[in-house]
Amino acid sequence: xxxxxxxxxxxxxxxxxxxxxxxxxxxxxxxxxxxxxxxxxxxxxxxxxxxxxxxxxxxxxxxxxxxxxxxxxxxxxxxxxxxxxxxxxxxxxxxxxxxxxxxxxxxxxxxxxxxxxxxxxxxxxxxxxxxxxxxxxxxxxxxxxxxxxxxxxxxxxxxxxxxxxxxxxxxxxxxxxxxxxxxxxxxx
Length: 188
Fold this sequence. Notes:
By secondary structure, the chain is α/β, with parallel strands linked by helices. Helix content is 22%, strand content 27%. The strands form 4 sheets. It has a 7-stranded mixed beta sheet with strand order 2-5-8-13-16-18-19, with no helix packed on it. Strands 1-4-7-12-15 form a 5-stranded parallel beta sheet, covered by helices on one side. It has a 5-stranded parallel beta sheet with strand order 3-6-9-14-17. Strand 18 (171-174) and strand 19 (179-183) form a beta hairpin.
């Protein structure tokens, strides 16, 4: 028999009120609250809290408080990750973020979603779709990455962009919904 947690992580419909999930969200909120109350001279404490919160954390990672997430343990970031103030990651499914990725202020990454059918939605079940962000990606402030999106290596997401579909590697996208503006040029 599949647990609600297993169903959630796999992208199947699940009951978010299941006791195990409520306990996991409560623990994540406690860790993020403690993290968000740290000061800039508490780098070691911040590192320990992020290691306790995230599923995996590479070296030389920085997350500026405040930060919010659903569970934390579904978030996996590689080395050199940087998230500016007010980042939100709704991680009911895995969020994989590659090396040297930079997130501007107020970037939101969502894996959580709800059924489109109103009767099914009213029943309270939810589901999610994983998000994958490649290496060397820069996501500008106030950008939103929607459930199920993959962002290719070296791409740039312009500020305020809403990404609803996969982004190929090496491009700049902008707008709502995101469209390709140009290829990344190392000379820009």
